[in-house]
Amino acid sequence: MPSSASETIAISISQLRADLTGRVIAPDDTEYDEARRIFPGGIDRRPAVIVRPADASDVAHIVSLARDSGQELAVRSGGHSIYAVSEGGIVLDLCEMKDLQIDVEGRTAWAETGLTAGEYTNAVGAHGLATGFGDTASVGIGGITLGGGVGYLVRKYGLTIDDLLAAEIVTADGELLHVDADNHPDLFWAIRGGGGNFGVVTRYKFRLHQVDQFVGGFLFLPATHEVIHSFMAEAEAAPEELSTIANVMTAPPMPFLPQEYHGKPVVMAIMAYAGDTEAGERAMAPFRALSTPIADMVRPMTYPEIYPPDMEDYHPIGAVRTMFVDAIDHDAVDTIIERLQSSTAMMTAAQLRVLGGAMARVPDDATAFAHRGRKIMVNVAALYEKPEDREKYEAWIAEFAAALNEGDASGYVNFLNDEGGERIRAAYPGPTWDRLKAVKRRYDPTNLFRLNQNIPPSQEGTGK
Ligand SMILES: Cc1cc2nc3c(=O)[nH]c(=O)nc-3n(C[C@H](O)[C@H](O)[C@H](O)COP(=O)(O)OP(=O)(O)OC[C@H]3O[C@@H](n4cnc5c(N)ncnc54)[C@H](O)[C@@H]3O)c2cc1C
Questions:
Q1: Relative to the CA of 84, which ligand 1 atom is closest?
Q2: Which of 25, 62, 122, 314 is the most buried (most CB within 10 A)?
Q3: How far apart are the C-alpha atoms of 51 and 464, rounded to whole Å?
Q4: Mutate-to-test residue for ligand 1 from 112, 144, 205, highest number of ligand atoms within 8 A of CB
Q5: For residue 172, is pLDDT > 50?
């Protein structure tokens, strides 16, 4: 063990290879550059070693090694967050732990953390079953679950964590714990929204829902003031079976969009109705009536088909901000249209997700996600090409977000970037923050798991 906090002990790659069943990738291995790459672009960190564990005992070994050596530890499942890679430390990359045990009769599944949302959804979808994750197939179930999980089934079945029944987690002392409502209930509460602060989850037990009838797909509408405003009203009034994601954005040059719209603001809505075809078509009618659609790709489909295909080798550089609001009023619509039109970024978007339904029926204190009553989640983003433009677009997005913000700093932790301790604090309103800190002190008193949206164990302090 290092004798002071700043001291680290070097890692022996050959010893690691001898000790582990899984893979060890060192800087001179040919796959190193690919293995250190994460989804967000513009991040170029060089870890000392990347370990891809085969099982929970490999995970426990690495957790103990990181603790005893003082090396920084990055924990990674799908690699979509900015914290998925360390500069100079250890990356614990769980992507090869993909075991999935589906209990079709019992409607549950034990899933290892290395599965992506798409892999899990396809596998359980073969039985007409589903657990809700987010909007993107390549996102890891590991990261999204720990932050909450807001996706296509949010209004019908709630957040991903509302379907989490149990988990297995390696804590900072290297122990593998089974957590559920009866075992370590404090830890089970904390990992449902508190992120990767408490240990490394090796596998999750999820509830499965029957989702064997589904209507969904893209609906492109003109981004007029009236369409945006009415879309939000219709989305709130819609039955809970329907969850929508309205991306008001500059249109990408997609082949099915007429050329005159390329680069112009459009509403790219993803419509997701978890129910039968007839009722689904009825629920879509008010949206189709808002204006003649530019493209209407909504149709009966299997639930897994709602996930757009992942783009190969896509690593966007982006400035993003997330917030909750209670309404998108006329001023907010004007702001969105005006900002999108004046942007010089490669692509800009305001993503509007109407919440409510099953998500809102869970009490705020039942899990560490305490935004149950918030009506709308807004994410604004500017994607750009050159990392050196970061400052310019960060300032632009901060202004955009401030213009929409209703006066509180709260946001959804899974969409936070490196935005400082105050924003992490605000992601956990009410007594949630103090409860999380108490659990952190109990299970990770030295803050071994700190490369994340960090909840420090100290009595005081809001960030790293
Ligand atoms: C393109 C895109 C679309 C998205 N869409 C949605 C969406 O629709 N809904 C939504 O809710 N979120 C969405 N997100 C946010 C997403 O949920 C977070 O980025 C999430 O952290 C990604 O999980 P991951 O496993 O892919 O990432 P990783 O970077 O691998 O993990 C994220 C963090 O979680 C922790 N972690 C991961 N696995 C474990 C584990 N097994 N044990 C302990 N800690 C762990 C680590 O702290 C890590 O830093 C989206 C993100 C992107 C980039």
A1: 29
A2: 62
A3: 25
A4: 144
A5: yes
Which ligand 1 atom minimizes the distance to the CA of 149? 11
**Residue 311 CB neighbour total at 10 angstroms:** 10
φ, ψ for residue 458 (rounded to 5)? -60, 155
- Residue 346 predicted with pLDDT over 50: yes
- Of residues 313 and 89, which shows the higher confidence score? 89
Q: Is any ligand 1 atom within 6 A of the Cβ of residue 120?
A: no
Cβ density class 108-131: b for 16+ within 10 Å, e for less: bbbbbbbbbbbbbbbbbbeebbbb
Condensed to tens digits (0 to 9), the pLDDT of residues 73-129 reads 999 999 999 999 999 999 999 999 999 999 999 999 999 999 999 999 999 999 999
How would you label 221-245 residue by residue, b for 16+ Cβ within 10 Å and e otherwise?
A: bbbeeebbbbbbebbbebebbbbbb
Question: For ligand 1, what atom is nearest to the CA of residue 138?
Answer: 26
Residue 464's pLDDT band (cuts 50, 70, 90): very low
User: pLDDT by residue (tens digit) across 426-463?
Assistant: 999 999 999 999 999 999 999 999 999 999 998 765 44
Ligand 1 geometric centre to CA of 414 (Å): 6
Between CA 133 and CA 160 the distance in angstroms is 6
**pLDDT bucket at 407, cuts 50 / 70 / 90:** confident
State the closest ligand 1 atom to the C-alpha of 202, by its place in the atom list counted from 1: 41
Residue 376: which H helix or E strand, with range? strand 376-384
Q: Give the residue from 216, 241, 209 showing the smallest Cα distance to 125.
A: 209
> Considering only CA atoms, which residue is closest to atom 53 of ligand 1?
80
Q: What is the pLDDT of residue 256?
A: 86
Which of 45, 76, 162 has most ligand 1 atoms within 8 Å of CB, for mutation?
76
